[in-house]
């Protein structure tokens, strides 16, 4: 399970689009050079980009929800290879992970508020009574 480090800020805006996300302060006029949080379509744009980047792996080895990624392997001996393939994609696109929020080689953990185990997706016991 992996988490992109400040995911949106890793996506550079095209120079011609930067003027669309400009803002004025008492110190002057500024614009973002990376995709900022909080804009109406930022989440959908980021998700589309992740879907495109990981298209060969999604549904087979990887699940991606915005900045959260789950690398799943059918056999333990394939997990390192599957992680390496995912890391290669991350390196290719210069995306960085938040290592404090990553867990590698685990058989189950919380993902998007659910427990993901070898048995499948289960309710998170800490969120149920």
UniProtKB/TrEMBL annotation:
Pfam families assigned to the protein according to its UniProt record, in alphabetical order: RVT_1
Name of protein: Reverse transcriptase domain-containing protein
Domain Reverse transcriptase per the UniProt entry, residue ranges: 1-116
Keyword Transmembrane annotated: yes
InterPro entries: DNA/RNA_pol_sf (IPR043502), Rev_trsase/Diguanyl_cyclase (IPR043128), RNA-dir_DNA_polymerase (IPR053134), RT_dom (IPR000477)
UniProt keyword Membrane present: yes
Superkingdom as given in the UniProt entry: Eukaryota
Residue ranges that the Swiss-Prot or TrEMBL entry lists as coiled coil: none
Transmembrane segments: 21-39
Family matches, as PANTHER family: RNA-DIRECTED DNA POLYMERASE (PTHR24559:SF430), TRANSPOSON TY3-I GAG-POL POLYPROTEIN (PTHR24559)
């Amino acid at each position: 399970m992996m988490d992109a480090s400040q995911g949106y800020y890793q996506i550079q805006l095209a120079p011609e689009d930067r003027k669309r996300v400009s803002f004025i302060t008492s110190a002057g006029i500024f614009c973002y050079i990376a995709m900022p949080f909080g804009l109406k379509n930022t989440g959908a744009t980021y998700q589309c980009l992740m879907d495109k980047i990981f298209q060969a792996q999604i549904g087979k080895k990887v699940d991606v929800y915005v900045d959260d990624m789950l690398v799943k392997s059918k056999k333990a001996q394939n997990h390192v290879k599957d992680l390496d393939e995912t890391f290669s994609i991350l390196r290719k696109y210069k995306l960085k992970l938040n290592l404090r929020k990553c867990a590698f080689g685990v058989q189950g953990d919380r993902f998007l508020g659910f427990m993901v185990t070898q048995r499948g997706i289960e309710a998170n016991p800490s969120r149920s009574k």
